[in-house]
């Protein structure tokens, strides 16, 4: 799966409340299942999958210290407000033809 496919799947799982799955497979990164759940619930709105136009708004930063890795800042959308001020920060590491992704932070930007 390509990079944006992995990011989309991560956001779909967040929007569906699959926090345990994200923590179990490592995509939650340094965050625990409870921390992910709390961050989403405290925001108080319903996350939705990334719309097609959302990909154009993703900021991708090369990592000089790790050539196979990039950091992404992904704006999130909610049912109530459309594009929200929540941002998902993700590190993606290229492994062969695919990427592994993990959450660095979920925060209001």
Q: Topology, pairings included?
A:
Layout: H1 3-15, H2 19-24, H3 33-43, E1 47-48, E2 59-62, E3 69-78, E4 82-95, E5 98-108
Antiparallel strand pairs: 1-3, 2-3, 3-4, 4-5
Mind explaining what this structure looks like?
By secondary structure, this protein is an alpha+beta fold. 28% of the residues lie in helices and 38% in strands. The protein has three helices and five strands; from the N terminus they run αααβββββ. It has helices spanning 3-15, 19-24, 33-43; strands spanning 47-48, 59-62, 69-78, 82-95, 98-108. Strands 1, 2, 3, 4 and 5 form a five-stranded antiparallel β-sheet that branches. A hairpin with a 3-residue loop joins β3 and β4 (82-95). The longest helix has 13 residues, at 3-15. The mean pLDDT is 94.
- What average pLDDT do the residues reach? 94
Main sheet summary: 5 strands, antiparallel
Q: Provide the succession of SSEs.
A: HHHEEEEE
**In one word, what is the shape?**
globular
Radius of gyration: 13 Å
Beta strand count: 5
Q: What proportion of the residues form beta strands (DSSP E)?
A: 35-45%
* Chain oligomer state: single chain
Percent helix, as a range, is 25-40%
SS content category: alpha+beta
Spans of at least 5 consecutive residues with low confidence: none
Number of continuous helical runs:
3
**What is the distance, rounded to the nearest whole angstrom, between the alpha carbons of the first and last residues?**
28 Å
